[in-house]
Write a structure and sequence with these properties.
With 325 residues, the protein is an alpha/beta fold. The protein folds into two domains: 13-55, no CATH class; 78-299, Glycoside hydrolase/deacetylase (TIM Barrel). It contains nine helices and eight strands. The strands form two sheets. Strands 1, 2, 3, 6, 7 and 8 form a six-stranded parallel sheet that branches. The protein has a two-stranded parallel ribbon with strand order 4-5. α1 runs antiparallel to α2 and α5 packs across α6 (148-166). The two termini are 37 Å apart. The structure holds zinc ion. Residues 84-85, 135, 139, 176 line the site of zinc ion (ZN).
């Protein structure tokens, strides 16, 4: 198994309640079989609620789920840009160059199969100061119907692919389309992974109007938001160009205007959960990389997934909305 240390699994209150509800209904059924439609209906209603929680990507009813960065008053106002479904040779290098130019770090939720196809690109993401995290091995539409063993098998295959390419196993997982069931959390606990959703997204895999995507991503934008974009499966605009070509530069400019730094999800972990124990503000800011010139070997981190960061400078006063999605 390729993972960080396993973590304890705590049965979420909603799941605990559902188990109790099922037991109660079963006991009622045994005691009063004639009322079976009532017992059956009650169980079905609970099953419906469980399914609904699994279909709601930002729900935390089935276990802990990062929908925003954990608050940290000592951190400069920051957001987390996340890019799903890569690495993609057609779009990921463009995203990396844009992030370089803006001086932001980001998190890439990569598909294991694609990492095996493009290991050098996955390595390049990390080398340029970003994080590669786990977005399943195959991104299969039926992912959410798995049991614990199926989840572990699928997610661990991607852990292995990313560790082989980047030299470090991910610490976060994002479910394909955000869909899951109650068996995912025990699987993630066994693999030592945290589930990450998002604060807002622009549906950039299906929406062809860049202005609408940008609006959805920035309406009520605030510090600690997690934004979801895609460097794989990206929709194309009316001119046949990936929508990200228009959306990303405009979004990065908006973040700069608001004085929001871009940090990786792992930089928002508690210090004792980071491999090197550093805070995001403590990360070395020398060995800056711009353009495509490789850094010298002595500037390269021994931990490929904890590459040195670029400087963010002193951000101007943020103009933040108090509205959260
Ligand atoms: Zn995806």
């Amino acid at each position: 198994m390729t993972s960080s240390a396993s973590r304890a699994y705590r049965l979420p209150a909603f799941v605990r309640g559902s188990i109790g509800w099922h037991a109660l209904m079963a006991a009622g059924w045994a005691a009063a079989p004639a009322a079976w439609p009532w017992w059956l209906g009650s169980i079905a209603a609970n099953q419906l609620a469980i399914t609904g929680a699994g279909l709601w990507p930002r729900s935390d009813w089935l276990g802990p789920n990062w929908r925003r960065l954990p608050p940290d008053a000592s951190r400069a106002p920051s957001i987390a840009l996340t890019f799903d479904d890569g690495p993609d040779p057609a779009l990921t290098p463009y995203v990396l160059d844009q992030l370089d130019a803006a001086g932001l770090r980001a998190t890439f939720f990569c598909i294991g199969r694609r990492v095996r196809e493009h290991p050098a690109l996955a390595r390049e993401i990390v080398r340029r100061g970003h994080a590669v995290e786990n977005h399943s091995d195959r991104h299969h539409p039926a992912f959410a119907t798995s049991g614990v063993r199926g989840f572990v098998r699928e997610i661990d295959a991607a852990q292995q692919a990313i560790a082989d390419a980047c030299g470090h196993a991910p610490r976060f997982f994002r479910a394909p389309a955000g869909l899951r069931n109650p068996m995912l959390e025990p699987a993630l606990a066994r693999l030592g992974l945290r589930l990450a959703a998002w604060t807002r997204r622009g549906f950039d895999t299906i929406e062809r109007d860049p202005a609408r995507i940008l609006r959805a991503l920035t309406r009520g934008l605030a510090a600690d938001d997690i934004l979801l974009l895609h460097d794989g499966h990206c929709a194309r605009d009316a001119h046949g160009q990936p929508v990200l070509h228009t959306v990303l530069p405009a979004l990065l400019a908006r973040l700069g205007d608001a004085g929001l730094r871009g940090i990786r999800l792992d930089e928002a972990l508690p210090a004792d959960a980071r491999p090197d124990g550093t805070r995001s503000d403590d990360i070395r800011t020398d060995n800056i990389r711009t353009g495509d010139t490789p850094r010298s070997d002595d500037a390269r981190s021994t931990d490929a997934c904890a590459a040195p960061a670029r400087p963010d400078g002193d951000p101007p006063s943020p103009h933040l909305s108090s509205h959260h999605e």
